[in-house]
Amino acid sequence: MDGQHDDHRVDANGRSQEEREGPLPKRPRPLLASLSAAEIAEEFSHHDPQVARVNNGSFGCCPASVVSAQIRWQRLFLRQPDEFYFRHLHPSIDRSRALVRQLINAPHLDDVSLVDNATTAAAIVFQNVAWSFMEGVFDRGDAVVMLHYAYGAVKRSIKAYVGRAGGHVVEVALPFPLSSPDEVVAEFRRALELCRADGRRVRLAVIDHVTSMPSVVIPVKELTRICREEGVDQVFVDGAHSIGNVEVDMQDIGADFYASNLHKWLFCPPSVAFLHTRHSSAAGRRLHHPVVSHEYGNGLPLESGWIGNRDYTPQLVVPTALEFAERFEGGLEGIRRRNHERVVEMGRMLAAAWGTQLGCPPEMSCSMIMVGLPSGLGIASEKDAMGLRALLREEFKVEVPIYYNKQSPDEDGEDKIGAAAVTGYARISHQVYNVAEDYYRLRDAINKLVRDGFNCTLLPSKEQR
């Protein structure tokens, strides 16, 4: 049954989907006039005006019009909770799901669930894999493959769920800086070959669409295709940074599971994400939310739509967030394109000012890009990276994540940290509220530290701060 007919299936009581959930919303049409610079500033006037905020990738952003819509939903709940639950909650969640379905080109609405965040979505998938190990569907020692640059919480979740259940966890080593997607493909193939050589069947591949730190766009479509060729049972794409940032097309990518936050780059308040399950995936029908509620067994969309009394309003303002995006020329696609162009421009400006380079080619970046920091800063550990980030925040009012790029050891086993080695990178983001002065402030702060002879050995301890 194709997606068009699937939308009108009837339930056991003979009700169509439209009768159960209300009519599917149409995509908002763009307004005739785009937002002016002054209107954009007003939408984000709740941001601290003293801070150059070039870290949208960390927590996302939410414009004032969407915040106002969220408050209206919260007040509706507080006014009469029973009416809100029985009349408004589920139809409104389903309208948001329908819009997400359109955005990601998913053929079936029943395959789209809204959850708290991508980490929750990952736990749902890994829980199911763990059950397969515990129930003997998978053999102990079968493998789960993930990228070395997978998000820290996701890596721990894999080990917590899958490792404890008997799965063997394999990390795909990735070089950095990167010069081509071919490097990612080659390392991924090598990891699958090693699993085959060890006699391990790969049950799940976890692939980031956009890695967090360092930030790189991964060729997920090609890696998914390789997994199919190599007999990998299931593919989970962690697209935490993806929707609103890069193109996301479920039918084109073809993964069994795909998750992305809506509060990172889609202007929703924290926190809300979607989890898509490929309709033909048998594993998808076994998924359950880790929080067991009254809806257990009624399908993941319903299970996720009620996990006890909590604030569901981030899931309800998706239509308003998309209306905001459509106020820009070209809508969401136009925002993505301009953010990418601008972050590359600002990244090149910073690299030229610091005498360094970008961490990957522009085509492997999105609305975030890695920029090498001057070697004289002496970033020699994760602790140094966090200390420098705190210094930039507290002394210069610049918020930007810093990545420690550990050097490969030389023949004697010592880390190669020479005078010219780039051991630290700044991950800069660009979103509609950013202006050039934000990046000039970061440039000038780093240049001042270098001129003053600062290096990370001078960072104060936590006690001193």
List keywords for this structure.
alpha/beta; 2 domains; Aspartate Aminotransferase, domain 2; PyrdxlP-dep_Trfase_major; Aminotransferase class V domain-containing protein; 465 residues; disordered N terminus; globular
What name does the CATH topology of the largest domain carry? Aspartate Aminotransferase, domain 2
Which term fits the overall shape? Answer: globular
**How many structural domains are formed by the residues?**
2
| Fraction of residues in helix | 40-55%
Distance between the termini: 62 Å
List unreliable stretches of 5+ residues: 1-32, 409-419
Gross CATH architecture of the largest domain: 3-Layer(aba) Sandwich
Summarize this entry quickly:
Keywords: Pyridoxal phosphate. The chain has 465 residues and is an alpha/beta fold.
Verbal overview:
- InterPro entries: Aminotrans_V_dom (IPR000192), PyrdxlP-dep_Trfase (IPR015424), PyrdxlP-dep_Trfase_major (IPR015421).
- It holds the Pfam family Aminotran_5.
- This is Aminotransferase class V domain-containing protein.
- This protein has helices at residues 3-6, 17-21, 37-43, 56-59, 64-79, 81-104, 118-134, 152-165, 181-197, 220-229, 250-253, 300-305, 313-316, 318-325, 331-354, 382-396, 436-451, and strands at residues 52-53, 112-115, 143-147, 168-172, 202-208, 234-238, 257-261, 273-277, 368-372, 398-399, 402-404, 424-429.
- The strands form three sheets. It has a seven-stranded mixed β-sheet with strand order 2-8-7-6-5-3-4, with helices on both faces. It has a three-stranded antiparallel β-sheet with strand order 9-12-11.
- The chain has 465 residues and is α/β, with parallel strands linked by helices.
- The longest helix has 24 residues, at 81-104.
- The model is unreliable at 1-32 and 409-419 (pLDDT under 50).
- Helices cover 42% and strands 12% of the residues.
- The protein has two domains: 92-321, Type I PLP-dependent aspartate aminotransferase-like (Major domain) (Aspartate Aminotransferase, domain 2, 3-Layer(aba) Sandwich), CATH 3.40.640.10; 331-458, Aspartate Aminotransferase, domain 1 (Alpha-Beta Complex), CATH 3.90.1150.10.
- Helix 8 (152-165) links the parallel strand 3 (143-147) and strand 4.
